[in-house]
Hints:
By secondary structure, the chain is an alpha/beta fold. It has one domain (4-99): Rhodanese-like domain (Oxidized Rhodanese, domain 1), CATH 3.40.250.10. The protein is built from four helices and seven strands; from the N terminus they run βαβββαβαβαβ. Strands 1-6-5-2-4 form a five-stranded parallel β-sheet. The longest helix is centred in the last third of the chain and has 12 residues, at 64-75. It is globular and about 35 Å long. 31% of the residues are buried.
Amino acid sequence: MKERIAPRELRASAASVKIYDIRKEPDERKIPGSMPVEGAALENGTAIPFAKDEEVVLYCGSGNSCSRIAKALRERGYNAVALEGGYKGWVSEGLPTEERAT
Length: 102
């Protein structure tokens, strides 16, 4: 199982995976179609909004937290990968963002 996915690879496969934003202090923009979830709840297993067989991609600000949390989820049998470079990596590739719901 992969540990990370590159931003452009995610964009190409976004329709077939669920994308979760785990940033603690997100700005007003997000990756299109992504849903917010608390990273700590994923890491400690208290609130996981997806099934073990679903393909999910996590992103944080720079890629560090999402890598750690995706690893913890994989160790519990989930199909989770981290976005390389996180949200900053996505934006630096010039990929589209959308406004967060308030």
